[in-house]
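Um, can you check?
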Amino acid sequence: MPMPQAIVFDFDGVIVDTEPLHYRAFIGVTQRLGVTFTYNEYLRRYIGYDDRDGFRAMLADHTDQQPDDKTISQLCEEKARVFEAILADGVGVIPGMLELIKTASEKMPVAIASGATTQDILPILAGLGLSQTFDPIVTADHVTRSKPDPTTYRLAVEGLAKRLPNLQPSGCLAIEDTPAGLESARRAGLKTLALTTTHPPEALHAANRIVQTVQGLSLDELAAWFDD
């Protein structure tokens, strides 16, 4: 039975439950600019963006400001400091994900394709004992356009192909939790599995498969789906 040759994991909302923490960090920065919004608005409008495009969209929606790249960079740096402080209280792991990562990484290469920054991701992976698990780790630092642009996933496949020279995008499975992430993976040619950790199933209809949890999900089940 065919099996994905590699799995590419999104990070926020797929490996760890950090979206509420990112929301708190964004609000911690934007409130001083007179910009505030609810968590539901964050999920509906801004999730899936990297920090740069997130700030651009937030300011465009709530102000008449058109910040330059330097201002956006400063906002991102401030948000990173706030986020780091929030992380000191701990971060939750998506149920069943550590087990799936361990099982998958013993059978095939695994990668990360995320809109978060490297600075956000690496300390969390270290805390979970996953520092050496993923190769490559593609983050917002490696692209100029965030998801749904396909570049993040294209770079992930290119990195994986250094270990599997004949790898094609169609041989990879992307695990995502947002419509923007699914579109990014689909446009890059990967098959997709969606988790309903941040969006209801109807918002994730573009995925090849949708699940509420990966707890108990076996690689044999993934193989059966991959063969569809």
The chain has two domains: 6-17+91-226, 19-87. The beta strands are 6-9, 110-113, 137-138, 172-176, 191-195, 209-211. The domain at 19-87 is CATH 1.10.150.240 (DNA polymerase; domain 1).
